[in-house]
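TL;DR need structure tokens for one chain.
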Amino acid sequence: MLLNYILMKNDYPPLIIHNKTRSEYLAFLKDADKAGLETNKKEDHFKLVQYIVDEMIDFYWDIFL
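>> reply
TL;DR here they are.
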């Protein structure tokens, strides 16, 4: 919910996580959470960010085509 709040506050559409990819999202979220915020390594959060970017592109690209 926090992610969607930040997205909408900055004039972006909310992220919709579909049932078919929810387990993948939760796994990436869990891995990023394990890394914590203290590490400051981009690699620790890369999969989660890449998942979010891919979902946004895939879902919203279809709307406009």
